[in-house]
Amino acid sequence: MFSYWEQESFTRYDHIVIGAGIVGLSMAIELKDKFPATRVLVLERGLLPTGASTRNAGFACMGSATELLDDLQHTTETEAVELFEWRKKGLELLRKRLGDSNIGYRENGSYELISTDELEALDKLEYLNQLLLPITGKPAFRLANDKVGEFGFSKDYTKALIENNCEGELHSGMMMRALTDMAISKGIEIKTGADVIKFDDLDTRVEVLLRDPFRNETSVLHCDKLFICTNAFTKQLLPDVDVVPGRGQVVITHPVPGLKFKGIYHFDKGYYYFREIDGRVLLGGGRNLDFKTENTTDFALNEMIQADLVQKLYDIILPSTPFTIDRRWTGIMAFGANKFPIVKAFSPRVFGAFRMGGMGVALGSEAARRLVEIVAEGD
């Protein structure tokens, strides 16, 4: 049970945000900017953000050519362009809010390795460029085959190289640190180790029930409005939403002497992604090898996919360069019937922004901005 002092000072808020990842912290900042007189609290069940915000690859990307072409097999041109624009606006907002130097943002090139099975995509680059031109203002894609040898990739696999002129990279840890620092500077409270069990949407307020592991009891907080920004873990609070977790496997090498490339890279319709960071190679992906197992919120390593990632380093990325693996980890993303995030009001007091489709870095800031606009329109 809370003491009198705790009950009076730490249990009532105007806005409570569940989740301290990219979306949750962006949401809290947007709320404080829009409604500066309000008390805003962010609850995070982990010591650090739980899902993928600090466990991703640090790509500031909007979609590779083959990924966009694959999307167009399942959606309209209008929807594909809208989603691309959403990602672009989200990245622009993130960079403007935090500053490039504070998130380690760099533009060292973005490329896609094209295999024999994907060569037909080259005939559609001009189509994609024209489709996206109103958003990008310049051709998004061009061939860069001359760089395959320069970068040292396997020519047996890499039959072409497509350069994306609209993407960059960042340091995920610096980004989350900058978001956290900004939130605190605005007077936003952040509580870690705060495991939300459930919430009750009442007539005039929302009650949020948390597990207190130290005192082995539940505690109740109250707010006028609740914001659920828990991405892959949202079904624990909203069981009926269309959210499927997707685990991403990652490896990173020790520093590789004489590494020939910088920038970010995709191959196999975006299911694999790698980059240079501090002279190392970070490689993630392979979820398509075992969708059933990887549709989970368990952070365990998948040994089969982990072995495949290392083999991809040997066979495709560093075919003639010795390397050793430094560490391995996983992050949990959220997917659904389509690639658009869910950003909506569930009641006059409960709101949500989640299901970032593996694009939280690009989509998160814009998703938060749009949800706060929904709140403002309803007030």
UniProtKB/TrEMBL annotation:
SUPFAM superfamilies: FAD/NAD(P)-binding domain. Gene3D superfamilies: D-Amino Acid Oxidase, subunit A, domain 2 (3.30.9.10), FAD/NAD(P)-binding domain (3.50.50.60). GO terms for cellular component: cytoplasm. Residues 14-373 form the FAD dependent oxidoreductase domain. This is FAD-dependent oxidoreductase. Transmembrane segments: none annotated. It holds the Pfam family DAO.
